[in-house]
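Deviation from plan, reported transparently: nicotinamide-adenine-dinucleotide complex.
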Amino acid sequence: MKILVTGGAGFIGSAVVREAISQGHSVLNVDKLTYASCLTNVRTVEQNLGYSFAQADICDGQAMAALISQFRPDAIMHLAAESHVDRSIDRPGAFVATNISGTYTLLEAARKYWQDAGRPDGFRFHHVSTDEVFGSLADTGAFTEDSPYAPNNPYSATKAAADHLARAWHETYGLPVVLSNCSNNYGPYQFPEKLVPVVILNALAGLSIPVYGSGKHMRDWLYVEDHAQALLTVATNGATGRSYNIGGGKDLSNLELVQTICRIMDQLRPAGHPYSDLISFVPDRPGHDRRYAIDATRIQAELGWQPKVTLEEGLEKTVGWYLANAHWWRPLQERSGVGRRLGLTA
Ligand SMILES: NC(=O)c1ccc[n+]([C@@H]2O[C@H](COP(=O)([O-])OP(=O)(O)OC[C@H]3O[C@@H](n4cnc5c(N)ncnc54)[C@H](O)[C@@H]3O)[C@@H](O)[C@H]2O)c1
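Because the crystal trials were delayed, the predicted structure below was used instead.
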C-alpha cells in the first residue's frame, strides 16, 4: 500500500513509518518539523526506496493537495499534532491551529483527492487520536468507543474537535474515515519533555524527578511499537466510520510508574543510592484528569490486535535505549521549553 503519514518525524509517527516500511508499504512522511520532531527517528528507513519525506505544514491546503495528488496514497494516517498537554495550557493557539484547522485542511484535501479519483472504496483516512478526549474516569470502569467526549484541557479539547471533524467528513461526505483513540505511549524516540524520558534523564543527571500532585493519577501505558502495529492494523483492516480504542491493559499510578522506572535504573545504572530518593512532589497540572483506562475489546475481537510487550519489558527496553542514545536526546534538551516546568498558568 502507499501510505501518506503526517507527523512521521515525531515519536509515534516515526514508529508508524518504521513499521510500515518493514511491512513492505511505501511511505510519504509529511512533517512540518516542529520543535518536537527529529528526522533521526526515521534514519533506519530513509535509504529505503519506498520511503520519501516532505517538509510541509498540514495547515497549508495547497501543499497538502499537491503532495496527495503527486503521491496518490491508498491511505492517509494522520498523526501530526501539537501533543504536549503542559504546552497546550500555556499556548493553546498552536493546538487549535494544527490539531483543529490542520485536520480540517487535511480532510478537505483528502476529500477532493478521493472524489476526483471516483470515490474508491479501498481508500482510508485514518485519524489518530487519544483516550484523553473522554476526560476523566471515576475509580472503576474503562473507556469504550461509546464513552461520551468530555475533554478537560486544551490539548484534549482540540483532539476531540478533530475527532468530530473526521467523523463528520465520513457521515456527511462519505469519506472512508477510520479513527483510533489510544492510551499513553512510551518507548524509544519519545521527546525529552514527556513523563517517561523526564524520569529517566533527570535520574541520570541526579536531578529531582517531578511527580505532579499526589502522583495518584492512573494511566494505561502502551509500548509505542505495539501502538504502531495497532495503527497499521486499523488503517489496513478497520471498518470505515468505526473507531477503535487501543491500550496496553495495564493501569498504574504515575507514582508507581516513576518508581518502576527508578527500580530499572537501579539495576541498569546503579548510582550508589536508590533513584527513588530523587522523587519530588510538585504542584499539580491544572485540569489534570484523575484516571484513564481503556477497554480494547473491539480492536482485539474485530481486528485480532493484541499488545506484545509487557510494561516491565517495555520500560526495560526504553530505559536501555535512553542510556545508549545520549547522542539522540542531548541536543533535543537544548530546544525551547524543554527541562522547564510548563503549564502552570491556568
Ligand atoms: N504520545 C501519546 O502518548 C499519544 C497517545 C495517544 C494518541 N497520541 C496522538 O498520536 C499522534 C502523535 O503523537 P506523538 O506523541 O508522536 O507526538 P509528537 O509531538 O512526538 O510528534 C508530532 C509530530 O507532528 C509534527 N507536526 C506538528 N505540527 C505539524 C503541522 N502543523 N504540520 C505538519 N506536521 C506537524 C511535529 O513536527 C512532530 O514531528 C498525535 O496526534 C497525538 O495526539 C499520542
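Residues 6-7, 9-13, 31-34, 36-37, 57-59, 79-83, 98, 102, 128-130, 159, 182, 184-185, 191 surround nicotinamide-adenine-dinucleotide (CB under 6 Å). We consider this an acceptable substitute for the interim report.
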